[in-house]
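Sharing a chain and its predicted structure for anyone who wants a worked example. Both blocks are below, sequence first, tokens second.
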Amino acid sequence: MALENNQKIDLRALFADETSDYRVPEEPDRGDEVTVRVRTAKDGVDRVCLVRWKEGSEPEETVMSRGTSTAVFDYYESTFLIEDEMPVLYYFRITRGDDVCCLNRLGTSGDARDSQAFRITPGFHTPEWARGAVMYQIFVDRFCNGDPSNDVEECEYIYIGGPVHRVEDWNTNPSTLDVGCFYGGDLQGVWDKLDYLQYLGVEVIYFNPLFVSPSNHKYDSQDYEHIDPHYGVIVKDGGEPVDRDAKDNVGASRYRIRTASPENLIASDALFARLVEEMHCRGMRVIIDGVFNHCGSFNKWLDRDKIYEKQGGYEPGAYVSKDSPYHTFFKFNDETAWPDNASYDGWWGHSTLPKLNYEDSPKLFAYIMNIAARWVSAPFYVDGWRLDVAADLGHSSEYNHSFWRAFRRKVQEANPDALIVAEHYGDPSEWLKGDQWDTVMNYDAFMEPVTWFLTGMEKHSDEYNGTLYGDGAAFFRSMLYQMSRMQTQSVLVAMNQLSNHDHSRFLTRTNQVVGRLGTVGAKMAETGVNYGVFREGVLMLMTWPGAPTIYYGDETGVCGWTDPDNRRTFPWDHLDYELIEFHRYMIALHKRLPALRRGSVRQLLAGKHLIAYGRMCGANRCVVIINNRRDPMTVRVPVWEIGIADGEPLTCVMRTDEKGYNVGRVIYQAKDGYLTVGMGAVSGALFATGEEG
């Protein structure tokens, strides 16, 4: 492309990032030589300088040499040695005549501050297998009931003031009082559906918590050492349920036998180990949920419901006895209240979620460090941890960071290839410096911007924002800024989701209705949904940098308001085969096209209800167009910005709109650097060149 003004730098031609096309190696170690590159317009600049420095030191400037060139671009490069383990920051200063600009992670719009610079953290490696990996989240109780013999029974025990309930009809929607209701999903059910998941193209399964717990969500752990037998195997049974009007678990002998008998715990652990082995044989990985900020009041360390005291064979819990070996695991506000001391700190004041007191308990710290290593080691060989409310752990920021540094060391000693993903809202940069987490559940740099742009809805369906709805410029500003808060190796393994167990289903958000189960009812979550918008979201999920993660059932059109309605059962007897096939095609494209799995991303268009972006990796180039308008339009996309030349074949490999989708391939060519294409109402399209062309 010719420069519009010979005295000015063509800002649209400038590009650099931290992927393999622009930094080799991507994740250097101490002692490595690293080459960084930057792209400019052909013969469009006078000089390019690399400005680099170590944290806390003064920057130094190096003139870069021009390396390779194409008909449109020049590539400048510079090589330097990584001398030690100190992070290296850099940006590019580009000059043409009197025109000077700086290029950093936010493009040319930012300044040269450390927070916006490209960054090298020597030795920070995220697992190769997780880059762009297709993940699938399973809330076990609602996925598939493979073994009815381990189902929670009606009135088996008391939980949060009432007896638990066994739901007999799998297709019944959750109620507002869902936490004590059980549908019977289990690990055998997951095993039974591995063929389906493999057919879909899933590479990684992320399980919501699996450890012993009285709730259906299991974020109130009862025993970190064992898989819950209600998900696993019950080989020893007996005892009695509680009376329907019981107030406590004194008579819950069946629950005690099921969850505290060593026979059941050992058998359940063994089933899980075999399941992981089977998944590994199929080329699939496993991530499990770790809830280490708090446990549950049923936990054997506290034993508020006397489960373990009455079972026998266990040390007394800290609720029961001041002399408990677990006394320091909790912070008690009244040291005179034993027995039955209920003065312990609860997370956010919840007595069912006792806050763990690491600062005062080296024994607790050592115990959890052993748990961190146990599940990624033999015989389980789990491939990673997802960490619940990870930023809340501990009573200070300083302790929180020191804990996660120790956690990372322990996990990597046991399994260097394990992934550590944290649940986090807001800026995660302090935890993503290479010594704590690998990445995050990507709310800020995926779920939220996508939801606002496509639907105008907040991720719980609690708010509609007409200003953000359809604002393409705001979408890219948010995406690119939030991505800049993570190093690139964290971005490429980030868990990108449209839905999960904590937020409304994305398909429900497409109806643009503010509501929850208790205010508007379950039926409204399915009313007025827009499958065209939904498929646009899936197209973006499979083409944006990161690890696309499907929440179970999304691929077959499950709807639902936020928790608990988002935890509806998987509808095995009434599947949406067309929607499943759409997901399967998109997953296959994501896995086959290198640019989608690990390539650079480049904004191409940002309009009202219209965006286009490119992905680049080596010879492979992809273009994504989203027209979320309610009317068709012709779109002109500057594909020259991602290196697509006039006359180069550009194949449309996916089109979707409100009526359906089409994978019939049509070849396009750019003219004068632009791809001109007609887009239907509420439509999306994916074009590919390079390997696909």
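Comments welcome. The first strand starts at residue 23 and ends at 24.
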